[in-house]
Amino acid sequence: MQKLGGLLMLSVLPFTKVCLAAEMEIPHTSIAAGSPQWVASQGDQSSIDAIVDIGTMRQIGDALEVVIRWPYLPASYGPEPTEKNHVVCQADHAISFAVENGFTAADGQYHVKQVYEPESQREKEEQRDAEMAKIGNGFSSYGSDPRSLACWAAARKCDEQPFTWPPPPNTTPLENTAQAHEMNRDYNKAFVPTCTLE
């Protein structure tokens, strides 16, 4: 079984050039340009390390449509899970929801398993997000997750700045104060695109 997992990994990854953005800069002109540009969210090939296509990312209304793959899950999970997400980059965190999911086969082809209605998916996610905000302390933030990566890439394109990942660390103090909240909002603003992607 372990051998099969290794074979699967070797057969999937040659079809995808994955960039560890910490090792290089990606020009802003390559973001949402229509050609695949895969970036690893963690860069450690762990089960939480997704790869995000910032090259074919596009804007749908106020959301970014982005393809996210999960190539480093154990082979026992089956074919490589792949999803198309809509990500709404808000002032303090991203809201995202799947509009399609499927898998990437060993030959590199993406196969759709399920398609979701974007409006109802967004409504569910916004409701869940509002409920979580009531439970939490009101502090949200961007991080090194794949959805934050998509927002960061779109914001870099809008600012005409090269893309590197991860973003600079958030040095906001953890105390629950108005000043810390304001500093956190300033940090998060850097993730919000200020233009329409074309």
Give the topology.
Layout: H1 2-12, E1 18-19, E2 38-40, E3 51-60, E4 63-69, E5 80-89, E6 94-104, E7 110-115, H2 118-135, H3 146-158, H4 178-189
Parallel strand pairs: 1-2
Antiparallel strand pairs: 2-3, 3-4, 4-5, 5-6, 6-7
Short description:
With 198 residues, the chain is an alpha+beta fold. The protein has 4 helices and 7 strands.
Description:
The chain is α+β, with helices and mostly antiparallel strands and 198 residues long. It has one domain. It is 27% helix and 25% strand. The chain has four helices and seven strands. A seven-stranded mixed beta sheet has the order 1-2-3-4-5-6-7. A hairpin with a 5-residue loop joins strand 6 and strand 7 (110-115). The termini are far apart. The model is unreliable at 1-14 (pLDDT under 50).
Features:
198 residues, globular, alpha+beta, 7-stranded mixed sheet
Low-confidence stretches: 1-14
Report the total helices: 4
The dominant shape is globular
Radius of gyration: 17 Å
Question: How many beta strands in the DSSP annotation?
Answer: 7
On the 0-100 scale, what is the average pLDDT?
85
Q: What is the helix content?
A: 25-40%
Instruction: Give the end-to-end Cα distance, rounded to a whole number of Å.
Output: 45 Å
The helix/strand series, from N terminus to C terminus, equals HEEEEEEEHHH
| Whole-number total of structural domains | 1
Strand order of the largest sheet: 1-2-3-4-5-6-7
Question: Sheet bearing the most strands, described?
Answer: 7 strands, mixed
